[in-house]
Amino acid sequence: MAVSYMLQAQFKRTHLKAKRLCACLGLISLCLLTSAFYFQFVEGLAPCKLCNWQRWPHGFIILFALLSITALRGRIMLIGIGVASFIGTGIAVYHSGIELHLWSGPGGCTADISSSASTSQLLDNLLETHVVRCDEISWSLLTLSMANWNALISFIMTVVATAGFYKLK
């Protein structure tokens, strides 16, 4: 009976630690997304296509963190957070390589051409559209661009989620 109670108490402690770790990682992603939206809507730095792609994994991390807090087991959600942050790291490294001109990026970052418009309307739309290029750095801190910071932080989150999953058994 005492052994069973001790095992239950140990499970509850590790379960609680996993939920706290998920919450911390979700909070980091929330801060990163909030910063991105701040730079977009307050500072006027329009995101490129890859900048928008980098936001999706953080949204999923926040979702996994909320799920771990509300209903599901935290350790299981650490797998989802680890995978999402790994994908986010990959997208950010890809974007960083484009910024450093190590490889070329996707064609046409933001141009939206619809076939229903006339030629003059298409030309007017193209002239009015401010194209945000994926290979230009619009902001940096300590010589690192936003994509570089995102790659670094997402990689650290991947390591922490993976270590947390294996440590909290």
What share of residues is helical?
over 70%
The average pLDDT is 81
Give the topology string: H per helix, E per strand: HHHHEEH
Largest sheet descriptor: 2 strands, antiparallel
Question: Nearest-angstrom radius of gyration?
Answer: 21 Å
Q: How many H/I helices?
A: 5
Strand content: under 5%
Count of β-strands = 2
Adjacency order of strands in the biggest sheet:
1-2
The stretches of 5 or more residues where confidence is low (pLDDT under 50) are 2-11
Distance between the ends:
21 Å
Structural class: mainly alpha
Shape: elongated
Task: Provide structural commentary.
The protein is 71% helix and 2% strand. It has 169 residues and is mainly alpha-helical. It has a two-stranded antiparallel ribbon. A hairpin with a 2-residue loop joins β1 (140-141) and β2.
Give a nutshell description of this structure.
The chain is an all-alpha fold and 169 residues long.
Q: Any descriptors?
A:
elongated; 2% strand; mainly alpha; 169 residues
Topology:
Blueprint: H1 2-41, H2 49-70, H3 74-99, H4 119-128, E1 140-141, E2 144-145, H5 146-167
Antiparallel strand pairs: 1-2
Helix pairs in contact: 1-2, 1-3, 1-5, 2-3, 3-5
